[in-house]
Write a structure and sequence with these properties.
Structural class of chain A: mainly beta
Structural class of chain B: mainly beta
Oligomer: heterodimer
Largest sheet of chain A: 8 strands, antiparallel
Helix content of chain A: under 10%
Order of helices and strands of chain B: EEEEEEEEEEEEE
Largest sheet of chain B: 8 strands, antiparallel
Strand order of the largest sheet of chain B: 2-13-4-9-10-11-6-7
Number of helices of chain A: 1
Number of strands of chain A: 13
Order of helices and strands of chain A: HEEEEEEEEEEEEE
Helix content of chain B: under 10%
Shape of chain B: globular
Strand content of chain A: over 45%
Strand order of the largest sheet of chain A: 2-13-4-9-10-11-6-7
Chain lengths: ~200, ~170
Amino acid sequence: MINSMARSLVTAKKWYRNISAGNPQYSDMELISTTVLGTASTGTIVFDNIPQGFKHLQLRISARAANGGNNYEYIFMRVNNVSTSTYSQHDLYGNGSSVASQALASNSGGTGGYVTGSASTSNDFGASIVDILDYTSTSKNKTWRGLSGRAGGNNLIMLSSSALYSTSAITRIDLLIIYGTLFAAGSRFSLYGIKG
Amino acid sequence: MAYAMVPIFTQTVTSSVTSVVFNNIPSIYTDLKILISARATSNSAGTGLNMMGFYFNTDAYPTSSSFRTLFGTGSSVSSTNNSGYGDAGTISDSSQTANTFSNTEIYIPNYTASVFKQLIIDSVNENNATAAGQKLSANLYRNAASINRIAFDTSSSQFAAGSTFTLYGIKNA
């Protein structure tokens, strides 16, 4: 769990300095915080005290479940620690042979995408990118768009959308594992701020 | 010092408008990226089915241009092709949950190159009910001119106040 963004921001600046030493590349997409699990120690990743100085946010996830015994792992995503049935979610997904679309209204969370489940090939981490636009707006409900998937058996690719029906600015994001109870060691969760 | 991804300009709709335009786009980047959080003021195509269009330069979109989509509605899926205009993705509309805006990314590689332009788009709109759109779209713009202007409109007639369009320039070196 990340308790504060302050320390992570320092880490981000170091990262950019290291890059600039060899090949100067600066961007208005900044790393706010990243967590890489050294052990399968948690089923919940928390980004708290999210800075309010960006236009948009982006999450980048490379993860798999350590347990649960499923082919895919579904990442539940909650915002501002809201756990009431005030979310909705819609998915467009394919598995290599068929495609479908599904809806979940009045749900208790949205999605951070599907990644690799513990029953799938070992050392195989699924990928997910989630874009959260206008996260500091106090007049818009919060929506996010995700593209996630994995291949190599038990294939799945998904374009997803989620909403929290609240106009509060986003200051906290929770990513929770659903089918298992632990994310595997090596799973990585990075939050970026994008200027506008 | 090279900047890899730079915000060029953000258009924020303060009262309903029929189009949003980026003029005088600088030609110093390799690719363009646009992030859109938008809502339409009416519902002409059906809940979750309304779309945004785009037009380059002088708005004369070649009839030979085309796009392919993969589209989910929350309950069904279809794949279509069409031509004569640009598909900029799906947009939230007045029949959907209030104060809820669609979420779209448009990527335009090689926008200054003297070649036809290929675009990729992923776009969603949300609704606290079954009907909402999820769309992947590939567009071919059959014109080799450098892009210096992009205009957006919507099949639902107007963009609602609060809609935002942010244009980014991306360099590869």
